[in-house]
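Cross-check.
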Amino acid sequence: MGNILTCCVCPRASPELDQHQGSVCPCGSEIYKTAAGDMIAGVLAAAAVEPGEVTFEAGEGLHVHHICEREMPEDIPLESNSSDHPKASTIFLRKSQTDVQEKRKSNYTKHVSTERVTQQYSSCSTIFLDDSTASQPHLTMTLKSVTLAIYYHIKQRDADRSLGIFDERLHPLTREEVLEEYFKYDPEHKFIFRFVHTLFKAVRLTAEFAIVSLIYIERLVSYADIDICPTNWKRIVLGAILLASKVWSDLAVWNEDYCKLFENITVAEMNELERQFLKLINYNIGVTGSVYSRFYFDLRTLAHDNGLYSPVYLLDRERAWKLEAFSRMEQHKIFYSAAKNGSLSADDLIHLQRAKAILF
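Predicted model, tokenized:
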């Protein structure tokens, strides 16, 4: 785990942010405004804009935290929901199927092809791959997919069941007065993405934390029997990201640093949000590799169904070498534990160093 789960309060900056001096962190209500500014202007549009086809640039999400390798103890019972059991279908994917089926039916009726014109296919002599893997997801693509899952949670909710701790009307994130109209309409996917993307950029989190945050959100929805709606989605997402960054990061961002990103939230309120979130999920913060993988691949399915695609690249010699190096690294991870016991051979060390040389 790397951390003791506490409500961290300290007058100085956290060690995670100290490692990135010179970077500019959004101040005041920038995060709030990025998600809410455009939405307030267009609040009279009751129909949300559907997510369209999006492509992304390369070179993102290259940090590996190996979250998917961390397992819960086998004696902990798993309940029959997607956040605990890998065989249970994810809630967001179920909720999205109605829209996906309607889109397919509409496209079939209008004789519209759902395939991209620029789609590239592999052959016997040519192989195309993207840079996203379960242990090293593409950052922007993952954030797009996770926020799309949140979007479907809101759009396909059963009711407006909520709790006061998550209600933005009771606990506003900004000092500016928010119109009541703001809470009457579902946020568009792009507004949710802007909020999450700005937050991730500010505290420098990697893609794996987005997936774990979504697992915590579905765990909260299942355990507390609440819905994600326009009045609570921001504070639920903030609580999930806060918890994921504390539990799964070796150098977690402290609560005081999160408070600097919003105008109207104190450290005490952030601590209370964290405590209540933990209590509502029964302090179940464990994420098995199988559950993490289930969410990762369901997010890829969701992205594909909604026209979100990662950039693909031709598998040339250099990329093949890197793939081979990653494979060797996975095979030789066991060597680290063997080395501590003095059972690592000289040949094993040579293979490990060669894999590192190819990779880096």
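The two ends are 26 Å apart (CA to CA). DSSP finds 13 helices and two strands in the chain. Passed to J.P. for a second look.
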